[in-house]
Design goal:
Layout (H helix, E strand, L loop, with lengths): L1 H30 L6 H11 L18 H23 L10 H10 L2 H10 L12 H26 L1
Helix pairs in contact: 1-3, 1-6, 2-3, 3-4, 4-6
Pfam family, one: DUF2938
InterPro entries: DUF2938
Keywords: Membrane, Transmembrane, Transmembrane helix
Length: about 160
C-alpha cells in the first residue's frame, strides 16, 4: 500500500513539473520570457563532480558532455523530490480527495532551493540578486513554483 503511494507521489511530482514546463513554454512563445536554460543547470551540476559547486560565470564555464540531458534529468528529479516532500506533509488519504493548499505550500516553501542554492551556485546571487532584473527573476520564480504546485494538485486530482 505504501509503495503504491510512493509511486503516486512520484507521478504527482512529474505531473507538476510537466505543467510547469508547459507554462514556461507558453511564456516563452507568447510573452518572450525565456524559460530556464536546462543546459546551464546541467553544466552547473556536471562541474560538481570535480568539487566546483559555485560557478561565478556559468555560461563561460567549460561545457560538460551531455549537459542538456543532465539539466532535464535534474529538473524532473527535483520535481519528484517535491512530490515526495508533499507525501511526507500529507497522509495518504489526501490522495483520495486532494486539496490545493498542501501542494501550493510545498511548492512555495520549495522556493528556498532556487533562491538560496541554485541561483547563488550558478552565479546569479541570492534570490537572483545578480541578474539583470532581480525583481522579475523573483516574480517569475514564485509564479513558476505556484504553477508547479497547481500542477501537482491537478495531477493528484487526475489520479484520484
Amino acid at each position: 500500500m505504501i509503495n503504491d503511494s510512493i509511486y503516486t507521489f512520484i507521478l504527482i511530482g512529474i505531473g507538476g513539473t510537466l505543467v510547469l514546463d508547459i507554462y514556461a513554454g507558453l511564456l516563452a512563445k507568447f510573452f518572450a520570457l525565456p524559460a530556464t536554460n536546462w543546459r546551464l543547470v546541467g553544466r552547473w551540476v556536471g562541474h560538481m563532480k570535480s568539487g566546483q559547486f559555485y560557478q561565478p560565470a556559468l555560461p563561460k564555464a567549460e561545457k560538460i558532455p551531455g549537459e542538456l540531458a543532465i539539466g532535464w534529468v535534474v529538473h524532473y528529479l527535483i520535481g519528484i523530490t517535491y512530490g515526495l516532500i508533499l507525501m511526507v506533509c500529507v497522509n495518504t488519504q489526501w490522495l483520495d480527495l486532494p486539496t490545493i493548499l498542501p501542494a501550493l505550500l510545498v511548492a512555495w516553501f520549495g522556493i528556498v532551493a532556487p533562491f538560496f542554492i541554485m541561483m547563488p551556485g550558478m552565479g546569479a546571487g541570492m534570490a537572483g540578486a545578480k541578474t539583470p532584473n532581480p525583481t522579475v527573476t523573483r516574480i517569475k520564480s514564485f509564479a513558476g513554483h505556484t504553477v508547479f504546485g497547481l500542477g501537482m494538485f491537478l495531477t493528484a486530482l487526475a489520479l484520484a
